[in-house]
Amino acid sequence: MRTDDKKKRVLLGEISGVHGIRGDILIRTYTESPEAIASYGPLSDASGNKTFAIKIVRTTDKGVVARLDGISDRTIAEGLRGTRLYVERAKLPDTEAAEFYHADLIGMKAVAADGTPLGEIVSIQNFGAGDLLELKPISGAATEFIPFEDQWVPRVDLDTGQVVINRPEPGDEDVDEDKETGD
Questions:
Q1: In what side-by-side order are the strands of the sheet with 84-88?
Q2: Max alpha carbon distance in the chain (Å)?
Q3: Which residues of the chain have pLDDT under 50?
Q4: Helix, strand, coil share of the chain (percent; to 5)
Q5: In Å, how far from its chain's centre is CA 156?
Q6: Tens of pLDDT, residues 32-58
Q7: N-to-C CA span, the chain
Q8: How many C-beta atoms lie closer than 10 Å to residue 101's C-beta?
Q9: Residue among 67, 106, 83 at smallest CA distance from 15
Q10: How far is Cα 183 from Cα 40, in angstroms, rounded to an integer?
């Protein structure tokens, strides 16, 4: 892991509403299991200035109902709606081989197989058909999406902060087949 990764923060959830009159909140979680959001210790807001210790009350189909230390009033809780909750990257468990946190990929330098610089990964998107790396080319051209599959992204090196990308070339057989089949 790169040394600057230790300072990264990862979005784990967002306060989406309040529940009841005692200041309980509803959190939309981005963790594998919704209750896991409370297992990382206090979380911070986007600025990193406010921290919140979370106690899970129960899980619902909309997220988790939770209590925050020091919040016992619905009006105060209402003011937290929309607050995004972050944890330091270093507090997250290690990933398995070929698994990555989005925060680890964003900001990585993209290079071609021959080492030619291509640009920087600025986000990861998923529109329903799998993860896509959003590449901001060094040329200043519009960003482009690269399927996060071995064929197009054969290597990710977290230690060097580089991801190797194979861009499809005009006339590439896979690209032409997609056009013919309408995929």
A1: 51-52, 43-44, 84-88, 9-19, 24-29, 63-68, 54-60
A2: 63
A3: 1-3, 5-6, 175-181
A4: 20, 40, 45
A5: 16
A6: 889 999 999 999 999 999 999 999 999
A7: 37
A8: 16
A9: 83
A10: 42
Compute the distance between CA of residue 108 and CA of residue 121 in angstroms, rounded to an integer. 6
| Intervals of CATH 2.40.30.60 along the chain | 3-91
Contact 88, 40 (CB under 8 A): no
> What rounded mean pLDDT belongs to the chain?
87
Fold (CATH) for 104-168: SH3 type barrels. (2.30.30)
d(CA 59, CA 56): 8
Domain with CATH 2.30.30.240 in the chain: 104-168
Cross-strand bridge partners of residue 164: 111, 155
**Beta strands 109-111 and 162-164, pairing class:** parallel
Determine which helix (DSSP H) or strand (DSSP E) holds 180, and give its type and residue range: helix 173-181
Q: Which CATH superfamily is domain 3-91 in?
A: RimM (2.40.30.60)
